Amino acid sequence: MAPEPHKREEQGGPAVFFLHPDLGIGGAERLIVDAAVALRSRGCRVQIWTPRFDPSRCFSEARQLEVRTAGDWLPRSILEGATRSAPRSAWSASRCTWCSSVREPDAFVCDQVSACIPVLRLFRTRKKVLFYCHFPDQLLTKRESFIKRLYRAPLDWLEEYTTGLADCILVNSCFTASVFKETFKSLSHVNPDVLYPSLNFSRFDTVVSADVASIVHKRRFLFLSINRYERKKNLILALEALHELRSRLDAHEWSETHLVLAGGYDEAVQENVDYYEELKAVAARLGVEEQVTFLRSFSDEQKIALLSSCICVLYTPSNEHFGIVPLEAMYMKCPVIAVNSGGPLESIVNNQTGFLCEPLPTQFAEAMEKFVKDPALKRVMGAAGRTRVLEKFSSEAFTEKLYQYIHRLMQ
Q1: How many CB atoms lie within 10 A of CB 240?
Q2: Which CATH class is domain 202-392?
Q3: What gap in Å lies between CA 153 and CA 156, rounded to an integer?
Q4: Cα dist. 128→13, 106, 243 in Å?
Q5: Residue 349: pLDDT above 80?
Q6: Pairing assessment for the beta strands 45-50 and 67-69 based on DSSP bridges
Q7: Is the dihedral of CA 63, 67, 71, 77 positive or negative?
């Protein structure tokens, strides 16, 4: 029996099907939802196919889209990284191609898991596929042992081969484009285009939610970190920087300082559960637990409230593929302290919209101290950040570019 859609829409334009491994809360999910909304605004009939979708753990716009689920019955614990999603995504792709009640698609958009592309090729040979590469999966897994390198070899080959089957390949930053070329040697003839993620500005033009008032009004100097509870996001750096900051402030300044670690959290993902407990233990060991609030799986309204009230956002992952959080912060006139690698090099202007630092607690603390000692700095850098986002990362530019890619695929 065909899976039931969570939401139907009636439009007369071309049909574009998205395939995504888990429509939860994260940067990749944010982009897919924004892309679907963007194409729908141009008259496209949009469906998102995914193995897993929880309406209580998703971006609010996802609940207004037509989302179909298939493949959630397959185990999540096979292998690691995006490869563990490959069987689930492949099954979801097969369901969307031969399900008799599904309208005929004109094009497919896949991201994260390229293993679904051969399935689409098998059943829909005349339909074009756009693959959006956030980052090569093989670089997201560690190779500590010979056995691990051995079993990863065919998976790496599969990722490279199936990625090359796409008719159009996009990446989220110039950094990812360079990594793509260095990683996929057999695809040296492919020059992926850069399509920066964007912001739907209207999402942020709202009133502050009252349900986090006890947090946002607790301290004068509120620092905010927004990232999933995953070790690669290096949230411990934020805690260690807060500990280092303590030695730079007087007693009154420290009493007015607080850090909120807000992030996507899924109890079904063991790493989320383990890392949350690890972070609480680190905060206790450093003696800063009274100055830290852990907020898991927060709503859009809570995020807007926090961004409206904090003096700075700490963005701690290294070599981040792009990073949507710095854009959200800068649009809300909030400066960003980020690691000086990866996507933030393209979104943040050092000493103008924030600070780019080495991933060291001392350097992050030094930058944080500047906002405590000179509160006016937030206003100056915040205004510069807002201007940069409006000029370079508008949803209108993103929508037009994406629509043109889809249009060219269908010709």
Answers
A1: 20
A2: alpha beta
A3: 5
A4: 16, 8, 52
A5: yes
A6: parallel
A7: negative
What residue segments make up the domains of the chain, in order of their start? Answer: 15-198+394-410, 202-392
* Angle 352-204-229 from CA coordinates, rounded to 5°: 80
Q: How far apart are CA 256 and CA 318, in angstroms?
A: 29
Using an 8 Å Cβ cutoff, are 48 and 9 in contact?
A: no
Question: Given the DSSP bridges, would you call strands 292-296 and 312-315 parallel, antiparallel or unpaired?
Answer: unpaired
At residue 6, the pLDDT reads 43
pLDDT digits 0-9 by tens, 202-222: 878 866 555 665 665 667 899
Nearest CA-CA partner of 218 in 295, 330, 157, 328: 295
What pLDDT is attached to residue 73? 59
What is the CA angle 331-337-343, rounded to 5? 75
d(CA 411, CA 407): 7
> What's the pTM?
0.79
DSSP labels, 148-171: HHHHHHHHHHHHHHHHTT-SEEEE
Q: How far apart are CA 331 and CA 310, in angstroms?
A: 13
- pLDDT higher than 60, residue 8: no
Please tell us whether the domain made up of 15-198+394-410 is placed in CATH 3.90.1180.10.
no
Distance (Å, rounded) from C-alpha 220 to C-alpha 223?
Answer: 10
Structural contact between residues 183 and 138, judged by C-beta atoms closer than 8 angstroms: yes
| Cα separation, 111 vs 89, whole angstroms | 10
Per-residue model confidence as pLDDT tens digits over 86-143? 666 666 666 676 664 556 788 999 998 888 888 887 775 668 999 999 988 887 777 6
Task: Concatenate the DSSP letters of all residues of 167-235 into one string.
Answer: SEEEESSHHHHHHHHHH-GGGTT--PEE----B-GGGGSSPPPGGGHHHHTT-SEEEEEE--S-GGG-T
Tell me: the pLDDT tens digits for 59-72?
Answer: 888 899 999 887 66
